[in-house]
Design brief:
This protein is an alpha/beta fold. 38% of the residues lie in helices and 24% in strands.
Length: 349
Amino acid sequence: MTATWSSLQGIWTLSLPNGAIEIDWPWVLLAAPLPLLLTLFARPYRTRFEAVHLPFFDEIAHATGMTPGPGATVLRRSWLERAVGAVVWLALLLALARPQWVDPPVERIQPGRDMLLAVDISQSMGERDFADAGGRRIERLAAVKQVLDGFIASRRGDRIGLIVFGDAAYLQTPLTLDHELLRQLLASVQVGMAGPRTMIGDAVGLAIRLLAESDARHKVLIVLSDGNDTGSRVPPDTAARIARERGVTLHAVAIGDPATRGADKVSLATLRDIARLGGGRFAMGTDLRQLQAIYAELDALEKLDFKTLSYRAKHPLYHWPLGLAVALVLALQLLAAVTALVRDRRSHG
């Protein structure tokens, strides 16, 4: 066990591995040598009284040839009484100095930004037009999850939530600082869980309602989709305008290869429009490397904005030295009473 002393603003701190002991009023301990100084330099207290009253005291003194003088009796204390007195005095001073036990610091993050990730899990996100590091073809959603996992891990201090959408938009994870849980829930998402269609406008509308309850300084929505909106109740461009009016910055990321043909072809126009109307950025992710670059750009664009609050609980310790002082005084008095009782019995035995 290691301990270090430090003094800060008149407070003495003894740092220990699992906490610290603080003394708020250390100057009180300067009175520790006061009893010794009184013993060395102060005269004993005197009181005058007549022990025996004799009207012929002078005659007796003259007859015996003795010259009377002032008398004094100084009570002597035993070594035990002196030791206990010293310990009691120091214990009282220590209690008066306000010792406290300080717990290890507990940090609490106060986020300055709330961010929602709206991930398209419609049937078209199962198209295998992405290549992983080994060159194997993977689904669009698999590439999104792979890159989002690292993006979420880097956003310390941001509250992040997850929306998934298909035939409708659903809240998968509410805004949270528990990024590990968010990453686990993101990994469990599968293509088609929310239906085969793509309701981008409804996903933006849900995000607006969720962020309306947020008191964060910055509100961000990132939509990840192939852009094929298939009949949202709220048109995507209308939802994007409302988002901007409500103080939500909307970024859009197009997922997939525009060269893909058929129903799964990537539609760029819708995503480009909602990013422009939402006051955010539009980015195109045609492969895994480009998608990673897009999130690096978004990570730099949406800089971390949070405060770390540190709190250390304090527990007063004055009752321990105070209790020791009281216990020693009571023990000394009990010992004196028992000693006197034993002597009395012996004298009458």
